[in-house]
Design goal:
By secondary structure, this protein is of the alpha+beta class. It has 11 helices and 8 strands.
């Protein structure tokens, strides 16, 4: 086999560029298997060098059905790469692996993809091929008994890939497709921090308290008035950021909990939700 044929075969099997393939074949003295290993090692080195860069673009992938949904975020450096076919193909397969492994990132990294290589090795290869930092970010799988999942994708890149995704789980045995879809859209728009007030992380509340106190510190108002204002601001923050207490985007004069009550469906309950947005 000529060197040109070896280069062609190596490019087909690894996706590496002509120059890298030629260099690897020369270094391996024409042994294709050794050349593949050389490229893999060089790919790891290239990938390591790129890890110090910022990767604030990318896509979120959704997989599953009304009983079980999974979301996974894959970041890259530019929006151009987020639309690259190799990148998209990798993320789509990764999304199904995420679903099968219930968003267990350690298991996902070791899982063998269709080419018999692990997700982690494929990630290194695609970084070397595309030339950008690519990372697997946040992920979540939602599945509850006697429940129905609903999803919403915003700014769709292709098929099940987007820039913002929401999954929400409702406990019910009745068909409530319209409300489920609207609730997912509401979560996308309103970005609640928790289902109810008690679910908001105390650290977030403490941080907000610090910001409010700092704003009021030099107001010149009496201390008792400052305390009342501060309490009111924190209570408003809690309501604005808890899903059940938010103003319903379809009818802002009502709260989400009012809409749930008006549906008059026995045992209807919002179990869980997850919102993912690239760059947040």
């Amino acid at each position: 086999m000529s060197d040109i044929d070896k280069i062609k075969r190596l490019r087909q099997s690894t996706g590496a560029g002509f120059k890298d393939c030629n260099s690897a074949i020369q270094e391996a003295n024409g042994d294709l298997d050794k050349a593949v290993e050389i490229l893999r090692v060089k790919g790891v080195a290239k990938a390591s060098k790129k890890m110090s860069r910022e990767a604030n673009e990318g896509v979120i992938a959704l997989s599953g059905d009304s009983k079980k949904f999974s979301l996974i975020e894959v970041n890259c450096e530019t929006d151009f790469v987020a639309k690259n076919e190799d990148f998209i193909s990798f993320v789509k397969e990764l999304s199904e692996i995420n679903l099968a492994n219930n968003s267990d990132i350690e298991k996902i990294k070791e899982f063998k993809m269709k080419n018999s290589e692990s997700v982690e090795n494929n990630l290194v290869s695609i970084i070397a091929k595309i030339g950008e930092k690519i990372t697997i970010g946040r992920s979540k799988t939602i599945s509850h008994n006697n429940s129905i999942n609903f999803s919403y994708l915003h700014t769709v890149v292709k098929d099940n890939l987007c820039k913002l995704a929401v999954v929400v789980s409702l406990q019910t045995n009745e068909k409530i497709n319209t409300f489920g879809k609207q609730l997912a859209m509401h979560i996308a728009a309103s970005n609640p921090l928790a289902l109810d007030i008690n679910g908001i992380n105390q650290d977030i509340i403490n941080k907000e308290q610090e910001l409010v106190s700092e704003e009021l510190k030099n107001s010149g108002k009496p201390e008792d008035i400052v305390k009342k204002i501060s309490l009111g601001e924190i209570n408003k923050f809690k309501e604005d950021n808890s899903l059940l207490n938010q103003a319903w985007v379809m009818e802002p004069k009502k709260k989400v909990k009012d809409i749930v009550k008006e549906l008059n469906i026995t045992n209807l309950k919002i179990n869980d939700f997850f919102r993912l947005k690239i760059g947040e």
